[in-house]
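=== RUN LOG ===
request id: a7f3
mode: sequence -> structure
chains: 1
length: 107
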Amino acid sequence: GFSRPIGDDFLWPRCLPYDRGRKPDFDDDAPRWREAGDAAAETLRNFPAADLDSVVLIAGPGFGKSTLVQAIAARLASEGLLPAIVRIPELADAGSGIAEFLADQVN
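=== RESULT ===
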């Protein structure tokens, strides 16, 4: 494989707003894209934002979940923030809260 820095040419994925009142049906996720159209989809280029503060990524191996997290972290770092990437299994194994986990990892 090869790697290069994430820049302006990164293809930011789009997401649809989650309707909490809608009965979950994972079989119809693909048709929802056709029904919703481009107007309802939001890009993750500016995530996190006031109107988009949480995202659930569901995809199989190799679909770019880790690359997306790295791209978001790189963009936030370029804006002067200090992002922390936390792997959920490691956090769960630590048996502590997020603040304690981060303090243990840094120290």
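=== NOTES ===
Strands lie at 14-15, 42-43.
The chain has four helices and two strands.
=== END ===
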